[in-house]
Write a structure and sequence with these properties.
Shape: globular
CATH architecture of one domain: 3-Layer(aba) Sandwich
Number of strands: 6
CATH class of one domain: Alpha Beta
CATH superfamily of one domain: Decaprenyl diphosphate synthase-like
Largest sheet: 6 strands, parallel
Order of helices and strands: HEHHEHEHEHHEEH
Radius of gyration: 19 Å
Distance between the termini: 31 Å
Bound molecules: farnesyl diphosphate
Low-confidence stretches: none
Strand content: 5-15%
Mean pLDDT: 96
Length: about 250
């Protein structure tokens, strides 16, 4: 089995680097349970995978990396787990902000951020401002995010524009609608990876995933690293993307 460096060389030889990779990071809880550890320990090890995968994406030349870190549904988990996840988010920002800035990573948070506690919201604002000039990789962290709510929010905005006479209904098209989503300015994901073997979309980027290639990895998120990301990209490079047409692009 080839190591990560050899896989990266092959990815570069193949050439078609996915511009936007999105990941549903799943399996932290099972990783902890397999070791008889509390769930937050799984999340803490998941945070280490976030760091590894950001670096691997930078090295591969991916332009946008979107990580599903906390769904709107996750607010319904036990308070102790929600609080552990929020603390980890703050810790991640505190520990990584300087390095992310130095590496040219531009951090964005996508989701209903007004639900965050003041300390978490302040940390988010700080790292977004600090990394705003990053030009190597855009890192979208989806927090308090749900795709249906995102779509409803966009529909309301389009309806308000129409009611105010700023647009007419026949001006509404893909591009106008996409600009109302949290992902405004990002190309749609080329590749969606879900870890831990689950075969679901889980209310993630429903609009944006229309023609995205899917990769289900059996690996639990805390064990997902450079090699696993590169294997998924190599597999993506073998796909025949037709976008509903007959011939490959
Ligand atoms: C899914 O595993 C993962 C989450 C709900 C949270 C993802 C969070 C991290 C990777 C760590 C913190 C992230 C950042 C950006 C600092 P699960 O708990 O649903 O696992 P299970 O399905 O095995 O129970």
């Amino acid at each position: 089995m080839a190591d990560a460096a050899a896989l990266l060389s092959q990815i570069r030889i193949n050439g078609a680097i996915p511009r936007h990779v999105a990941i549903i990071m799943d399996g932290n809880g099972r990783w902890a349970r397999e070791r008889l550890l509390p769930r937050p320990v799984g999340h803490r090890n998941g945070m280490k995978s976030v760091r590894t995968v950001v670096e691997a994406a930078l090295e591969a030349g991916v332009e946008v990396l979107s990580l599903f870190a906390f769904s709107q549904e996750n607010w319904q988990r036990p308070a102790v787990e929600v609080s552990a996840l929020m603390s980890l988010l703050e810790e991640f920002i505190q520990r990584e902000a300087d390095e992310l800035e130095q590496q040219g990573v531009q951090v964005h948070f996508l989701g209903e951020l007004d639900r965050l506690a003041p300390a978490a919201a302040a940390a988010v604002d700080k790292v977004v401002a600090q990394t705003a000039a990053g030009s190597k990789l855009r890192l979208n962290l989806l927090v308090s995010y749900g795709s249906r709510a995102e779509i409803i929010r966009a529909v309301k905005s389009v309806a308000a524009d129409a009611a105010a006479g700023r647009i007419t209904p026949d001006q509404v098209d893909d591009a106008l609608f996409s600009d109302k989503l949290f992902t405004v300015g990002c190309p749609d994901p080329d590749l969606l990876i879900r870890t831990s073997g689950e075969q679901r979309i889980s209310n993630f980027m429903l609009w944006q995933l229309a023609y995205t290639e899917l990769a289900i990895s059996p690996v639990l998120w805390p064990d997902f690293g450079r090699k696993e990301l590169y294997e998924a990209i190599l597999d993506y490079q073998q796909r025949d993307r037709r976008f509903g047409r007959v011939q490959a692009q």
